[in-house]
Specification:
single chain, 207 residues, alpha/beta, Rossmann fold, Arc Repressor Mutant, subunit A, 2 domains, 59% helix
Amino acid sequence: MTPVLHLVDDDLGFRSALARLLRTLGHTVQEYDNAKEFLATPAPAAGCLLLDVHMPELSGLELQAHLATLDNCLPVIFITGHGDIPMSVRAIKAGAEDFLTKPVSRVVLSEAIERALARGAQAMADAARRQAREQQLGRLSSREREVALLLAKGQLNKQVAAALGTTERTIKAHRSRIMEKLEIRSAVELARLLDQAAPAVKRDTSA
């Protein structure tokens, strides 16, 4: 799938000129007049977000913060004519790929976009891997998950049995079913799978 550069800027003249430039460089560009218009778009295509800071109703920094609560994988590049050091520090600390000031060099912008697209592609791959692992873990019962978490920590069957107030024989049976359901052979593989599905595991254990 071709990545899309989502360009959000309320300055029509600048936005149109930048969009033309990016298209001549071979990019697919989607333009938005403001942050709320972007948020109203259902499931924006993968790529990266080119974002102005000062916009009416919802600023670029506020949009960045909102997207973080949605686990959005789109990397953010800020392009602004009214930035300052505290603002850039805030943006970078919140995960922005770069904070550029207008007018921006074509070379600098192109390099930032390439980094952002690579980062976004990796984030999507990681998310897909986590989802696959979460689906695997969904095959386990709640008791099997409890056993799996302890086994993944390196505990022996008898230690798990003591921790859960049951017998070693019962834990061996759980262990066998866990390995079969998850299609793995060792506690090392189990630990790796749980680590890759860390968000789901945390939600499950905190419930």
